[in-house]
Amino acid sequence: MLHALISLGLGGAVLLSLGLLLWSRRDRAFESTASVADAYDRWTDDRLLERLWGEHVHLGFYGQPPRRRDFRHAKEAFVHELVRWSGLDQLPRGSTLLDVGCGIGGSARILARDYGFDVLGISISPGQIRRAQELTPAGLSCRFAVMDALNLELADGSFDAVWSVEAGPHMPDKQRYADELLRVLRPGGRLAVADWNRRDAAVKPLNRLERWVMHQLLVQWAHPEFASIPGFQRNLEHSPGLTVDTDDWSRQTLPSWIESILEGVRRPGAVLGLGPRAVLMGLRETPTLLLMHWGFATGMMQFGVFRARKPG
Ligand code: SAH
Question: Which domains does the chain carry?
Fold first, then answer.
């Protein structure tokens, strides 16, 4: 018994050290959109993320405390909350919707199935697009394509709605990202964006500890930079006549970070079933998830949501 406990403890310590060692590597820092595609291909192909968190690569929405909501249900709830808040539920069934940075299509399928939208999801990662296609039942009005959000191969004004969730941190040029989202939206169409944002430097610059944490949050997950909420609002309002409403959903989404870690504990089979490498990969993400929690809990980071109706 004692032997077994010692071996278990030693095994755990070795895995933890290896996880930390991997975390300290910087091989997922943003270099170009190709490095983002590569990071997401790896995150998709090893299946770890999908086994743990399901089809949605975004945070969950938790209402008022006690906030007892399953992580996967909270992610679905997030999609419905953003639809309601941004007024997308005012659009008739059959409206066309572009999902920019669609992951493996979790939101796109809900938007097609529950709201009747005709959805095109695009991602820079070919691995994600293949997986999104596999997961989408035939007959659902939901297509996917590999495309760069900064260079959409789509006609001006060709969508009734544009949706983009948690893709902004990967964009090296926030103005171009905003311009492309709005270019393909038709006059009168509706925009819904959710983004991980940094506190506006004009409100309070980062202190030394925050600068270190911020650096980790950027280099770990292929992020060139985070916009601030007012900064991205200005990027969008660069479009003539456009008024953008924003809100901060940090409080409503905050439990997601710790839930992301707990999912691994609750479903050990999901990770263990993929082999020892997956356990290591899971451990590698833990420090970043904890730092993200810290960033959003202290106000260094903010979960920005943006809605607008293009003048028509
Ligand atoms: N919106 C999805 C996925 C969020 S993860 C969801 O809610 O589940 C971020 C997504 O942005 C990934 O799909 C990633 O491939 C995509 N992305 C990042 N940079 C991109 C770019 N330049 N062009 C298109 N997609 C991009």
Answer: 2-10+45-54+63-300+303-308 (3.40.50.150)
